[in-house]
Amino acid sequence: xxxxxxxxxxxxxxxxxxxKGNCLDNSVMENxxxxxxxxxxxxxxxxxxxELKMAIEKHIVYYNEHRIKESIGWLSPAQYRRRPSCIIxxxxxxxxxxxxxxxxxxxxxxxxxxxxxxxxx
Length: 121
What we know:
- 58% of the residues lie in helices and 0% in strands.
- The protein has helices spanning 3-10, 27-41, 49-65, 77-81, 84-103, 110-114.
């Protein structure tokens, strides 16, 4: 086991890898990291690890709480997830995830992660 993967295991961090050369396996995160690099990394100089870490943490709060998206009705992701219909879907998804896990076949539901529903667009 490589030192890196051993350290991840020690810290209870689970490594997630997609197929080699296929960025579409995780397009949501690929998009997020692309925006992160574009908005806070390229063209900027950070003088310490702590300074970079703080910039990333601030950007994540901005991205989730304030950055509006056309695809979810010009709301921020946090505003979108706080809608009553999302809360009900999340509760149902937690129930089904628990039931599936109990039966030995856990199937995560995208509705729980993103609570995406048709916005009539």
